[in-house]
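Example record for the data management plan.
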Amino acid sequence: MNVLVTGGAGYIGSHAVKQLREAGYSPVVLDNLSNGHRRAVPESVPFYQTDLAETDKIVEILRKHEIGVVMHFAALIAVGESVAKPLLYYRNNTAGAISLLDAMDTANVKKFIFSSTAAAYGEPEETPIFETTRQLPINPYGRSKWFVEQILKDKLAADPAFGFTIFRYFNVAGAAADGSLGENHEPETHLIPLVLFAALGKRDAITVFGTDYPTPDGTCIRDYVHVEDLVNAHVLAVEAIKPGDGRCYNLGIGRGYSVREILDAAKKVTGRDIPTIYGPRRDGDPAKLYANSDKVQKELGWKPKFLEPAEMIETAWNWTKNNGNRERSAAQ
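Corresponding structural encoding:
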């Protein structure tokens, strides 16, 4: 089966392309390279530098390659930027998804896998977070994804031949175990790569925001899921999608680790000191966020292999040592 992977030159998308090929599928990549990297896509994989807004071009790609499933990763993901530039996020993440769905309609492609986010829940009152937890996103990024979830449900109601799977990501971490791919955002905002840059001396320090949370060590607790485990769920969904069926799943390991635990694991893996600055809490940062992922494990047979921070960080460290030449400021 041919699978269109939007955002296939990005962090998660490139790992999905790798696993799809290993599973016997034929991926086709669409990416505007605003955040992706052409070198992350093998030369043998068809690649189109195309924007989501170019509906007619996407129709041509879908028809030319007889696409059976669309796996949609292409999105902007920086929460702070979304607050400063909300229209950019609604144009790219929400309107872009509509353009893609329009192209699918025209080309008669009926299976869709959507990369959503735990940010669609906002600040839940209780953890763990279930798929039925009330969704009240608190920033444009979360809302831009939540809107697409609603659009998919409305489209399913109008088109019984359509089927979709939504994955709500928690904190994605790590790199390909074979060292071939890793996290390469510009700028980087995720905790683990920033910690590793500090270990390499490519930034002055890592800032821990808040040490007075009601958690065992006073720092925030988050659910970290390894990128290879995450994309494995997407590969499992390719065959599971059925006409007239729409499903939503959390992708997390079902427990959280604190910022201090991540720092301690990184020190152990790297064998290096990590300069640390302790600052005040950031507005809107809940004390604990972690998933209940029983549903995806039961329905798709998904089982994460990476459960400990050190295991995830080791794969990221192997990548960063060889690809971590980018300079970073001390500000997180």
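Summary line stored alongside the record: Residues 1 and 254 are 32 Å apart (CA to CA).
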